[in-house]
Amino acid sequence: MQLLHTIKELRTWRKDKGFIAFVPTMGNLHDGHLALVKEAKKLVDQVVVSIFVNPIQFGTGEDFESYPRTLDADMEKLVESDVSVVFAPEINELYPSPQSVFVEPSTIQHELCGASRSGHFKGAATVVNKLFNIVQPNIACFGKKDYQQLFIIKEMVTNFNIPVQIVAVNTARAKDGLALSSRNGYLTAAERLQAPELYKKLTDLKQAITAGNKDYLGLTNEAKQQLNAQGWQVEYIEVRNAIDLQPAQTKDKNLVILAAAKLGRPRLIDNIEITL
After folding, report:
1. In angstroms, rounded to a whole number, what is the distance separating the alpha carbons of residues 57 and 69?
2. Does the annotation mark 120 as catalytic?
3. Residue of 5, 33, 110, 120 with catalytic role
4. Looking at beta carbons, which pairs linking 214-219 to residues 24 or more positions away fall under 8 Å?
5. Which terminus of the chain is less hemmed in, N or C, by CB atoms within 10 Å?
6. pLDDT tens sequence across 43-54
7. pLDDT one-digit tens code per residue, 213-244
8. What is the mean pLDDT of residues 142-153?
9. pTM for this one?
10. Cα dihedral 104/107/111/117 (nearest 10)
């Protein structure tokens, strides 16, 4: 496994490597990231993992400065996963001057997580586009936990005719159902015991909808009230069409329930898909 820090090094390595897969990350790797790598390895031998905490997707007051940076520990995990290359550029490598041209996602960027994180998806799409141009992968693996981001990346690839196959990988979870996330490390011991309740609420909603309840607004409002009463600060719980992420209609057959809520310091997100 090689650790590369510059675009020139990565492009030199890439020249004669043929078909490759790519897993973009911000580091502080956990089993969710490794599940993406495992899926990539099933598809192709050569896998590139990027580790880069992208400043332009963090808003004012968010945790860019304190976001955990654990390159040595990440490298140990990736050696065990038989990754070919880790691309870990410095900020001035990807942004030698202030970014003046951005990928502008569709209006979905302003909804759900985007309603409280202005510019987040523009920053995320822009850096993924830069990384695609640098790595030139044939396949890229993204987790379904970041469902809205996955949708936006797919939209970008389609709209810009980028020759990358996007592979969506199921959310990795702890045994109690909590979606794995680097931000879970911010949870106190007491909060960690309570954190699986978000996924439990989504599971309860899925059961109700599968049983025929189509009062989506009533169901989600009740779930929000219950979580808020338990000390959560719910940002949203919404039922959307899984195909286009528009608000779900009663005729829709493919649904996704998406949620974001703060529990103490960390903001947790999760989702669950439904096929009727």
Report:
1. 16
2. no
3. 33
4. 214/250, 216/248
5. C
6. 999 999 999 999
7. 999 999 999 999 999 999 999 999 999 999 99
8. 98
9. 0.95
10. 20
